[in-house]
Structures are given as C-alpha cells and as structure tokens.
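User: structure tokens for this one?
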Amino acid sequence: MPKWTNEQQLAINHEGENIIVSAGAGSGKTAVLSERVLRKLKSGVGIKQLLILTFTKAAAAEMRERIRANIKKNPDLASQLLELDGAYITTFDSYSLSLVKKYHYLLNVSKNIQIGEASVFTIRENEFLDEILMRRYENPTSDFTKLIYDFCTKDDDSLKKSILKINHALDLRYDKVEYLTSYIDTFYQPDTIESYCHLYVSKLFSLQEEMQNIIESLCPLLEEKVSEKVYSFYRKFLDSKTYDEMVGSLDERAPQTPRNSEDDVKAYFAKLSELRKRAKDYLVYPSYQEMKDAIWATEGYAKEIVSILLELDQKMMELKHEEDTYDFTDISKMAIQLLLDHPDIKEEVKQSFQEIMIDEYQDTSDLQETFISLIANHNVYMVGDIKQSIYRFRNANPYIFKEKYENYQKGIDGFKIDLNKNFRSRKEVLDNVNLMFDLLMDSVVGGADYKASHRMVFGNTSYEEQGKSDTSHQMEVYRYDYDKSSEYSKEEIEAFWIAQDIKKKIESGYLVYNFKEENAKPRPCKYQDFVIMLDRSTNFGLYKKIFTYFGIPLAVKKDESIKSTTDLLLFSNILTFIFKIYHHEYDTMYYHTYASIARSFLLSLSDQEIFQTITGKRIAESSIYQLAEPIAKELDGLSTTELLDRILTAFSYYEKLLSVGDIDSALARIDNLKRIAKGFESIGMTPSMFQEYLVELTENDQLDLKYKVSEDASNAVQIMTIHASKGLEFPICYFASLDVKFNMRDMNDRFLYDNKTGIITPYFKEGIGDTILKSLYKERYTMEEVSEKIRLFYVAVTRAKEKMIFVLPSREWDKGTDYDSKVSWSSLADMLDSIRDVLSPYTFSIDLKEIPLTHAYHTLTKKEYPTSFAHYVEEEISISVQPIGQERFSKTTSHILSKQELRAMKFGEHMHEVFESIDILHPNLEKLSKFEKEKVTLFLKHDIVRNAPQAVYQEYEFMTELDGKMQHGIIDLLLQYENRYVIIDYKLKEVTDEAYRKQLDGYKKYIYQKTGKPVEAYLYSILDDRMVAM
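Assistant:
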C-alpha cells in the first residue's frame, strides 16, 4: 500500500464541499484521484454515482484502468467491477453528447446525431461567407460599401479571414446569437464608450505614479542642476489632471544619464526612459474627444460585420440541423440549453452524482465551466495545476482555476489543497526549477504566485539512497558567441553540439537512475534517456539529418501537415483527371494532371515518355486513362468514400506505396482523407465538392490537415515540442532554439474579437487608425501570451528527472523580472537572460572550434531500420585466406535500374532487415510498424517455422569451393532440426525466377556437404505470404 503524504491523504479523504487540488508536476495527482475513487467505493458510493471528467479519451481510458486495477485488489468490490465499463469516466465532450442523445426529442435533433469533420465545416463556412458577401456586392448598403472601400484594396481576403476568426471566437459563447443581436445597441452607448476611455486614461495615471516614485528615488542621487532638469522636464506630465493636459507634455528631449553615473542611477534613467516611451505610445490621440470619436466612427463597420456574422451563423446551423451533424462546441451548447430550459432534468442530473471529479481542471473552457456550474451541488472535486495551463489556443481559460484557487484559499465557496511534493525529479533539479521560477512566475504574469504557494518540495528519497552517485545533477546553461556572417545557422550549431554531447555521455558511461526499473541502481545512460525539447517542430528535420550523421538514433514526435506530402496533391490530381474525363474537358488542367500522375510513384514514367504521350495526343491510349475512364463513367452512382476506394484499388495505390517506404505514415494520411470524405457525405456534399475541396486545400494556406507522427523510440533519443512533452518524463533534457520569437501575429489583425472589448475594428480618417480598444486588447493579449509561455517553460523543465541542459547564443540584455520587463519578453531566451545573474554559477561557454561542424550531413542518405534484440546462434567457421573470384550464388542484374526498381529494391532490403532482426524462437514484435508486424506474424504461422527447431541461424554467411570456384553466399534463415536442415530465403514478392532456384541449389549443396543431413529449401514471398518449396 502506498505511503501517502499528509497533503495527499487530505486530497483523498476530504469531503462535503467543493475542493480544488493544486497538484504540481510529479506530485502523483492521478494516483491520488484514483485512490479517492477507491475510498468512495469502499464507503458504499457506487462507481456510477461518480462523474469523472477528463480532457482526452486516452486520459479517460488510463483512469478507468487504474480504477479497475484498484478494484481487482479488493475482492469486496467485485460488483463494482461489473459496473465499471458503464460508468461515466469520460471526456466533457462525450458526456455532453450522451445527454444530448438521451434527451434529443427535447432539443429537436435526431437521436442519431453525428459529429462532423471540422475541415468539412470549414469549407462550407467559406462557401457560405462567399455567397453572403456576393449578395452584398450585388445590393450594397452604405455601411457595406464603406467597409469595403475603407479597408479592402486588391481583394477582400483579409476581411473574410478576420470575419471567420471572429465567428470562431464567438462560437465559444453560449449566447452567441443573443450577444450579436443586441451588440450594437449595447456597445455603442455613451456610458460604455466613456468607461473604455476612462480605463485607457487610468493607464496613464498609473504611469504618472510610477514616474513620480522613480524621480523621487533618483533625484537625491544627482547633482542639484541635473536634478532640477529632471524635475523640470517631467513636471508638466506629472502635474496633468486630464488626458488633454498630458498630450505633448513629453515631446521635448529628455535629460540624458550623466557621464560616469553609478549603476543604480543608470538603472533609474533607463526605467524613466521606458516609462516615458510607454506614456507617449498612449498619447497618440490629439484629444480626449477625438479618442471617443474614433470609437464612434467604427459603429457602421461593426453593424455590417454583426449582420454578416448573424447570417453566417444561421446558414451553418441550418446546414447542421438538416444533416443532423454538429461539432462538439454545438453539442456543449445543446447540453447547456437542455439544462437551462428543463429544470427537472437539471435537478435529475445534479442528484444522480455523489461527486463530480475533473482532471486537468486548469484546461477548462468557459463553456465547460458553465455546464459544470449547472449540475454542481457543492460536490465538485477539481484537480489541476495552473502552472501547466498551456492550451489557450484550444480555448482553455486558466483564470477559472485561478479565481477558484484564490477564493477557496480564503475559505470562500470551497476548500483548497496544495500538492507540492515532487516524486519525479532529483533534489538538484527541483532546486534549479525553484530558483528560476521564484523570479519568472508571479500571480500577475504567469498566473501563480510561485514563491509563495507553488515551490516544489523534494519527495523521492530513493534518489539519495539507491540512486546516489558522483554525477553532477545541477543544471547547465551553455552559451556561444554567434556571428551572423557564419556559414552555419544557430540551429545547426545547437544540433551539432547536442549530438556531440550525447555521444560523449554515451561513450563515457554517464550514469542515470531510473527508480521505476526493477532492482534500480545507477547505470550507464542509453539513447532513450535523452530528450530534446523545442518550442516548435520547424527544425526537427534538421536534427534528424545531423543525428543520423552522428550515428545517433533520433525518434521524432510531432503533428505533420498532410500538405507537406505528395499524397494530397496526387489524390487531388487523380480526382481532377477523372472529372475532366467525365465532363469531356480536355484542357490544360487535363494535361497537367495527367503529367503529375504519370510522374508520380504510381507510374514513374520518364519525362520523355510523358512528353511523347502528350504531344502525340495519345493520353486516351495511356494506362492512366484506361484506369480512370471506368471510374469516370460510374461517377454519378458513387459516393465520395466509394470513389476514393475505387481509386485506391484501380491504381494499386497500397501496393505501390510499398516501394515508397514509411508506409504507416502514408496509411495515416490516406485514413485522414477517407475520414474527411465520409464527413463530406454526412452533410450532403458530393464527390465533385470533395474534389474542389482537395484543390482548395492544396492552394489555400488557411486550410490544413494534420496527422500524428511518432517514430519508434525504444532506444532512441527523442525530439518533440514542449506541448507534446506534457505528461512525460526523461532523465536528461536538452532545451534548444530558445531565442525563437513568440508568435504574436494574431494581435495585429485589423479586425478582432475579445470577450472584454467586443468586436474591435479600425476607423478611417485620412487613413486607417486603431482605436483605444485595440491598444487595450494588445496589452492584455501580450500579458496573457507571455504568461502562457512562462507556464510552457515550466512544463518543459519539469519533465527532467535528473538533469537540465540549456543551449543558447550569448547576447547583451538589460531587462529584469519586473512587470514591464516580463511583458516585453518575446522568447524563452529572454526569460533566461533576465535571470542570468542567478544562473551564472551554472553557465558555461561553448568553443565553436570544438564542435565538428560540417555540411556533409546534407548528403547523407543512410536509412535506419527497426531492429529487435534477437538471439543468434553463433558458429565459428574456419576460412583460409586467399584471393577469390567475384562469384556468388545470388541473382545479379546487368541493366541500369529504373527509379521504380530502385525503390522496390530499397523496400525489399528494408523488409529483409526486419525479418533478419526477429528472434524466431522468442519473437518480440512491439517495435515493428503495423504493416511489418502483420507480415512477420503471417510468416511465423507457417508450420515449417512454427515447429520449434533445435537451432536457428540467421544471415548465415559462408564461402565454399564448388565446381573449382570459390563461391560466396548468405542464407537468410537456416533452421536445424534433429534429422534435417531447412533453408528459407526471403523475397519481397516474386518467387518464380529460375535464378532463385539455382541460388538455393548452391545453398543446399553447401549445407549437405557440411552436415551430411537432408536439406530442404524454400522461397518465401513476404508480400504474398507464399512458401514455395524448391
């Protein structure tokens, strides 16, 4: 039975009110949550009386299995085991959907309601918006004409993009339609606009106060004349009582820092200069009245945008209702509507649960919080960590957690518990993290008063007992001087240095300790003990090349865009070609798509062949046309998914993929396309619309499809984004590309929406200008974005169990960790530079001359294949040393191989590698891809292989003299039985070539000469699963 800390025990046992558990990284929150469930079951609460909500299906499945394991250990709870699979351990989305389906008749929707593909809704939304705007162009109102004339130049693409973004933001409001309907009457009121202007001016008064305090501290340190100059310059601004009085008060040249000043005087002058700049940025309007007038001038624009948004929402909801297909945001709103409109159902749901448990509560959205508030009964148990709230882009609102935490801390409405003891990391790592975040994170910027309430406490004493070693576990910050004229980029330098450092640690036997391993003790590190974390995946390909150059296995984990592959373009061109045949449109696009398909891996025709076919007007005689024409003739009777399946079959797509490699990724991409096709069908869209969508997808930068890439990491260094690392842990963590700028582009959009300031539009007066609403929004956006990046950095460093290593360029930096400095941070490097003084004991310099930089990695073509730890039978063979001729048993070729033949050969080599690596007696297929696993499993089912041999020889290499010549051979698989030997030679597909028979005859003769026992020989076709006796 685990030994719980006092805080964990409190989190397991406390009852009777709302509870928020702030669970720091590595604090065992999942174990605590599952133990709390077990305690409740033991006390008589049924598993179906608990609503356990998570944010992902994977998290829900993990929680269910943890609870299952706990129940199995308690025979008295056997009845609960039967109830477990029907219990509400699920995601917010799934639970809301279950309610909507249960009470569908009250919501006027079908019980067969479906969830549609987001990308399908996106394309229809774009189409509807185009239709709405076209009608307005045909019958324009004065507001529409002014909106287009003032803000659109060549086209209206930017406006459309902004309207769609505003629409998506408003979708997150439960009251979207009501909000928009009353927006103009509510917002464009004198009192409302006055309140925003007052808020804006209050920022200047706050700067006044800050300046006054700085001057009072600075002037006593100055000579009298200099002090008078400072007072004189700033007096007008400091004495101003209104905005109009402030205008122009800081335009003169400010007093400069006196020569030879002390550091504190320099710091005061620098701060004054910064405050002055900020004040001047606020004072951009000539007068207070013009500030207000600018907002009033936007009313017509806002009115037109609101009208467009309401019409667009109506169109989308009509489509969704007609097809009974919605997105999860719609489902969430329906669930809320159900509870608001039907108090009896709300009460029924509220009374059905003894407790509502929410995991990862810091990621809750406003809609989810509204839903929970309706079914809560002072019985909500919330577990999370605001310091790990990093999903603002997915609508997470960390301030929901923050507000509850602060209220419960005061005893208002609930009870607060802190789990700060960390069981993941060594003490040195925790001390390092605390050292940094005491300075980096506070309640205002970051969302948590780290120093007061969130410092991590060392909890895993096994590190100091069984895991004790002389290895240094203090963090290391490596800096290098970067010359912009260097032939190498910063990314290359950092990747080379990290690869070199990992290589050194592997070769020197650097010790790590995995307390989860059986009989754990410090051991030499393996590649799987290292991870590289970057803020984004842009440079993963670069790292892959450089690490391959070093001979270091590197496993990539990221979301890949389907647009970066050939599949999307190829499918788009095949569909377009088929539709061109269907419509008898033999135009330029017809020829273009033919050439694209012919050149692809499906046909691999030469440019000369393609040219001759096109110029000879013989496309209709080509194999491509012969494959496409029958499909074109059947188009009217095919659904979108049927059309895709016909293409895959007709063009032997899956089989041809075998020659390309990376089959699992290709299959994932095709599955994505098939899923989208099914989504098109669900909302009544035709195959021709799907074809147009694929064309749009290839050309429109705003549309994209992602699929997950996760390479085998069983003994490889891993590289991933910080977001992807959440929930994981690694002994040694490298952090690089730290000076990459945060993406702040969204706040510069011309038209915006924000919950606090509403719809933000520019105004036009002798040019385009921004209102104060944009300034207020940008200030808040910047603070929230920097706060999230601080939390992201916290997530990153708390993955480390034993050591953190940072790599970044050296540079000048003069900012600290005060509020103004923090909101100016634009990269993770800014954070580290702001605390460089406290990091100096851990900081080292990199000598670039000691890094083996080279461009040779660009030309590397080596491909790595998965291997398993097979058991090989070794046999010593005595061979006399003498020159031998170039004779071999295996088949040779005398012609230049085509690209297709080369690809097939490479794939064949790959599959040979896979089969050679399998331990025939004790196969372990975990590290193989789905395709490889399937092929190996089929092979192992053959009786010849299944009947356990006495010994197994794989890749049995030999030399022998036959017919007066020295011959060389390698037997793929040699099985030794009591009274015979069996030879199996792997072939990718074909097993009928006469040369193969001659090859195996040579093998049989050699083995018979060696052993004197009967020898059987077989050819095995991997793709066809055929075992052919020779």
